[in-house]
Amino acid sequence: MTTLEVSRSPLRWAGSKRKLLLTLKRLAPQEFTRYVEPFCGSLSLYVALKPNSALVGDINEELVNFYRMIAWRPKAIATAAHELNNDEATYYELRSYDPRTLGAQDRAVRFLYLNRFCFNGVYRTNRQGQFNVARGKHMGSIPPVQELIEFGRLMRRATVRQCDFQELVAAAERDDFIYLDPPYAGRGVRDRGEYGVGAFKEKDLDRLAEALHGASARGVKILLSYADLPDIRSRFPDWNASTLEVARNVAGFASARGSVSELILRNYGT
Fold first, then answer.
1. Helix or strand or coil: residue 222?
2. Sorting pLDDT into bands at 50, 70 and 90, what band is 211?
3. Kind and range of the H or E element at 73?
4. Which residues pair with 258 in a beta bridge?
5. How many angstroms separate the CA atoms of 8 and 224, rounded?
6. Which residues pair with 243 in a beta bridge?
7. Pairwise CA distance, residues 125 & 111, whole Å
8. Phi–psi pair at 92, nearest 5 degrees
9. Contact 266, 222 (CB under 8 A)
10. Residue 38 burial (CB count, 10 A)
11. Worst-scoring range by mean pLDDT, 39-48, 144-153, 241-250?
12. Measured at the alpha carbon of residue 172, what is the angle toward residues 66 and 60, in degrees to the nearest 5?
């Protein structure tokens, strides 16, 4: 079943990322009432777990509209996306549109098409909030119609909100399970507009820690994955920690490729 990769990293869930997903699935709690994901750019763990009830959210308006529409009209969106030509002219014509002038369904089709054919799967906007990523050379493809229909059916189990992560964490209740995979916002990371206007930054780490400690005190089960940095470890000193080496290619160039340590924190037992 398809997943998108919008709010976390330009990488698709492939190679060592699949290894990370398997680790996350293994470390997820066996029982919980509702699945909650505040940075829902990929929803890979949601797809893997297939919970009966979910609350997911993101600040990305285009992503949220896509998830809502794929739940409502998956066949129409999938069919329309497959009917578009995979060429430069079509890509840049769609990219030039102001999505706010489109209907919700056409807006979802545009988002899906651009996400699949843009450079390295990057979601980036300029200061005016306009998507400005070039067409890729080694691109993905539109998932099969039936796969998108199945994804749409799964999305009907979820309530999708456009909101800041703190609002979604605050909505989690006892025995809910929160999974968070925030964009990497460490020191020295240049802001090129990835993940859209208002994306998670280093200054938000204190808000993140405050929100998660509050949810933990309410009896919420929490799983957090992030780059293995002292700034994160110091904020959750008593949580169970695991590390995993994963490949990163954030910049999209060979010189930026390498292996980094992913830190996986959880406030519940192993």
1. strand
2. very high
3. none
4. 248
5. 13
6. 263
7. 13
8. -75, -25
9. yes
10. 30
11. 241-250
12. 25
